[in-house]
Specification:
Blueprint: H1 3-24, H2 33-56, H3 58-65, H4 75-101, H5 108-131, H6 159-174, H7 184-205, H8 209-215
Length: 225
Amino acid sequence: MDGLARTTIAGFSELVAALGILLFAPAWTLRFWQAWVYLFVFSASCALITAYLWTHDRALLERRVEAGPGAEKERLQARIQVLASAAFIALLAVPSIDRRFAWSHVSPIVVLAGDVLVAIGFALVFLVFRENTFSGATIAVSAGQRVVATGPYSVVRHPMYAGALVMLFGTPLALGSWWGLLAMIPMTLAIVWRLLDEERFLAKNLGGYDAYRAVVRYRLIPLVW
């Protein structure tokens, strides 16, 4: 087993373990079927994408396993990552607390619709990975990197963040919590802040990015922004 395989398996295992703790510990029960379904959808989606990258694009997989505030080279991006990480924790922990105290009453249909949104969000992220081998987890310009303007990048300039927002919005619904949606406020702010700073960085360091921005007008939501 090479170093990338060990890092990938360890990272995936740590992610699933962290999700399990955040989903079930605050609820103080394992009788939380919404969390079990969500954990399966989330983990299966991550596993499928990882398997694809392992087979077709190990360079991108290597870029993706180096993630988090500590991996960022830009100080501002590290701070934004801290905010995004805290918001993601809240997206899981608040619904878990909600389950414990029964604050929300969400129908199973809405819960399953939330799981569908999570799967759709991951599918959009997969399309980004398939189209752009340079879509790493940190803000950087790699040797030989070029502007990608095809596939989802022909619709919005930041399709990966668009997919992430779909997945994240579906998370509290999938966990049966209306209150968990409040965590989408800081999460959305973090993503918007990140992409605006990323655009500044790419315009300065990636040739052709300004011309791309002139052609693809919308950053995140077609016909909106």
